[in-house]
């Protein structure tokens, strides 16, 4: 049986799916009003509205409302230059139970996973949840430097450096100062 029904817009009352689908694609009548179908989100362009597909990290997008993640980050994904991504200063993290945008972390900053720790040769300590230098590296001027193996040092200046470290800071520094003074 054919009949005419009044076309409806999103969030307007309806009885039949056809009422919602007259005005836009991917809309349906759900619980008495026009809504976007599952997997779609309402977007508004000026005075026009539409149902656009929800998308995930690194997918193409038109508006922020389309960008979704299966978890709760510290900030939501954004549609940046036509792609869903994290805003500046945040990194996308994905685990088996969560995904989202989390703050980038530097040495000494709090973290949840290794991916947040930006400096090369750093990781997120499981015990302290702080970005730390990996084994074999030490913190030096906001970077992780490789520890030197004293037995492989051959250069005179490197030898002095090794003695300064091995001899303790006060004695080692005094030794470096004395040797440097004698070279003059």
From TrEMBL:
InterPro entries, alphabetized: EB_dom
Keywords: Membrane, Transmembrane, Transmembrane helix
TM ranges: 160-182
Pfam families xrefs: EB (PF01683)
Domain (EB): residue spans on this chain: 4-43, 49-91, 97-144
Keyword Transmembrane helix: yes
Keyword Amino-acid biosynthesis: no
Protein name (database record): Uncharacterized protein LOC111084114
Organism: Limulus polyphemus (Atlantic horseshoe crab)
């Amino acid at each position: 049986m054919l009949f005419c029904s009044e076309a409806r817009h999103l969030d307007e009352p309806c009885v039949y799916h056809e009422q919602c689908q007259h005005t836009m694609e991917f809309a349906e009548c759900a619980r008495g009003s026009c809504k976007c179908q599952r997997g779609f989100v309402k977007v508004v362009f000026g005075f026009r509205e539409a149902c656009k597909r929800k998308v995930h990290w690194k997918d193409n997008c038109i508006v922020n409302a389309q960008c979704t993640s299966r978890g709760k980050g510290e900030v939501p994904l954004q549609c940046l230059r036509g792609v869903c991504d994290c805003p500046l200063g945040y990194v996308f993290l994905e685990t088996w139970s969560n995904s989202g945008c989390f703050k980038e972390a530097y040495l000494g900053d709090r973290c949840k996973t290794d991916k947040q720790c930006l400096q090369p040769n750093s990781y997120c300590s499981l015990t302290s949840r702080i970005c730390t230098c990996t084994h074999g590296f030490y913190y030096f001027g906001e970077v992780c430097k490789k520890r030197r193996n004293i037995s492989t040092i051959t250069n005179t200046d490197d030898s002095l450096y090794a003695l300064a470290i091995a001899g303790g800071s006060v004695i080692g520094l005094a030794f470096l100062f004395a040797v440097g003074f004698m070279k003059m």
